Amino acid sequence: LRTADAYWRVSRPTRPDVRVVAAGLEPHSFTALFDSWAEHDEAAEANIAHGYKSGEVVSGAVELSRLTSCDAVLPIAALQRRPLPDHVDPHHLERHLSEPDFLEAFGMTKEEFSVLPAWKQTNMKKDVGLF
Question: HP domain location, by residue (predicted)?
């Protein structure tokens, strides 16, 4: 969705009306577009657990906003617990820390951290329980 949104911004004067359906919960109007359709119960169960409803059609813009709301600031304790909160990138937990929490945990700013080699970042994240 993010890639499509970026493409539309530079190539089209108006954004198309994109709709998103959840795997296993597709509405009949969607499945009827195909010659054959196989039901996927496991996908349906997983998507129901994530709050989707059977037959629901969501605006692409709304879904993109929901999925990219991972910019939420969380306390370090919430990022150290499992399971992680929804929409938290498990590979970049440090991005969800406030600047003061980040400074306390890592002893440097986010900008200073970002220029470190990947191996060093990984070791530091392990040291503070964010890996």
Answer: 68-131
